[in-house]
Design goal:
The protein is of the alpha/beta class. The chain has helices spanning about 5-10, 10-15, 20-30, 35-50, 55-65, 75-90, 115-125, 145-155, 170-180, 200-215, 230-235, 250-255, 265-280, 285-310; strands spanning about 135-140, 160-165, 190-195, 220-225. The chain folds into three domains: about 5-100, no CATH class; about 110-130 and about 280-310; about 135-280, Dna Topoisomerase Vi A Subunit, Chain: A, domain 2 (3-Layer(aba) Sandwich), CATH 3.40.1360.10. The chain contains 14 helices and four strands. It has a four-stranded parallel beta sheet with strand order 2-1-3-4, with helices on one face. Helix 8 (about 145-155) links the parallel strand 1 (about 135-140) and strand 2 (about 160-165).
């Protein structure tokens, strides 16, 4: 199957004129020793990563396929892109931070070189709980741990809880969220992002029902993606549901024959949807006042810490 890599190579075919950085990026890629057939693919992957980071490797893969850079979504093509991206990152053309993977992490207790170092950390960490003074509570839930890395910059900016499900949720996971919600005396809004396939919808149903069982407070639940209209709007390559899946018949009746992974949606679109959903619950005048109050508190706190550091 012929791909669109040749027309992409000038960078303008899909994304418009390239800034100077992309010209520099392309020159860096040419020094990494790619075989001729992989140079154009490396350029495509690097530009998408530059424009949409942070994103997952699978998300990048779907974007490359949807733009015609790879002929299919099979494992062979995924592995090819993975090898290319490894070379791009190890060669310094693509920063490691552009590709997120929250599934694997290192666990280590926090430690400091001394009290001044600790005080500096505390100074940078202070943040006022705006949501304690706002009229609603917002919680974002996503099906995949890797997607949490894509969304974290938004939820961190707005100080909103972000919970990756990681498959069918445990009783403990659902009960922890429900226990948190039970302590909240204001409207609760939960926003969910998951795959458009039998498992994705069943995972969502299972979690929502468990939360309804354990939570004594009413809550509003809304799916932000993947949505039926996303297939046409983002030209998602439809995957086929597994006929052997016991949830296949129900999915077919309710949602049709098309499937798509959450990673297939562009990372900027995922972040935009979450930001819009959060922003809908923030009175802008009140938010500005709270930001100013936080600034004043930070200044006062910083002064106290400076005195402490001098004493230490």
């Amino acid at each position: 199957m012929k791909t669109n890599l040749d027309s992409f190579f000038d960078f303008s075919h899909f994304f418009g004129p390239a800034p100077d950085f992309l010209a520099y990026l392309r020159s860096q890629i040419l020094t990494l020793g790619f075989r001729r057939k992989n140079v154009e693919l490396a350029n495509m992957a690097a530009e998408i990563a530059f424009r949409e980071h942070p994103l997952t490797l699978r998300g990048l893969f779907y974007r490359v396929v949807s733009l015609g850079g790879l002929p299919s979504t099979d494992k062979k093509q995924y592995n090819r892109l993975n090898r290319i991206l490894t070379k791009l990152r190890e060669g310094g053309a693509v920063p490691f931070s552009w590709i997120v993977d929250n599934v694997r992490s290192t666990i280590k207790p926090s430690s400091w070189s001394g009290l001044p170092d600790f005080v500096e950390t505390v100074e940078q960490a202070y943040r006022m709980d705006f949501w304690a003074r706002l009229p609603a509570y917002v919680h974002v839930i996503c099906e995949k741990d890797a997607i949490a890395g894509v969304l974290a910059s938004v939820t961190r900016e707005y100080d909103v809880a972000l919970s990756p499900v990681r498959g069918y949720c445990s009783l403990t996971f659902a009960h922890e969220i429900a226990s948190l919600w039970n302590r909240i005396d204001k409207p609760i809004y939960a926003y969910y992002l998951g795959d458009y396939d039998p498992s994705g919808f069943d995972l969502e149903r299972d979690l929502r029902e468990r939360l309804q069982r354990y939570c004594r407070r009413p809550f509003v639940w809304e799916r932000l993606g993947v949505l039926r209209e996303d297939f046409a709007e983002f030209d998602l390559m439809p995957l086929k549901p597994k006929v052997s899946d016991r949830r296949y018949a129900k999915f077919l009746r309710t949602h049709g024959r098309k499937c798509a992974e959450l990673d297939a949606l562009p990372a900027p679109e995922l972040r935009s949807r979450v930001e819009t959903a959060i922003d809908d619950h923030i009175p802008q005048d009140e938010w500005s006042k709270l930001k100013e109050l936080e600034r004043v508190q930070r200044e006062s706190f910083r002064f106290a810490l400076v005195q402490f550091k001098k004493a230490a």
